[in-house]
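As noted in the main text, all predictions were made from sequence alone. Below is one such record, for Flagellar biosynthesis/type III secretory pathway M-ring protein FliF/YscJ.
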Amino acid sequence: MPHGVVTGIIFALTPTVVVGLIFWFVMRAIMRADRTERAAYARVEAEERARFEREHGVAAPAPASAE
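Prediction:
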């Protein structure tokens, strides 16, 4: 292949690859943040349920469904 064809292919594919990598990094960051937030929420909810059960001596009511 002539040098110009290879250069053209590289210039044609580079923007797509770069945008794909940026998209991948952003989605990865969003997924990790969501996972961390859900773990923190679950930990706080468990602490609150334990406190409720200690103070009232009965099991905490079930959470409302997220519908």
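The chain has a mean pLDDT of 91. Helices lie at 3-56. These features were considered when defining construct boundaries for the mutagenesis experiments described in Section 2.9.
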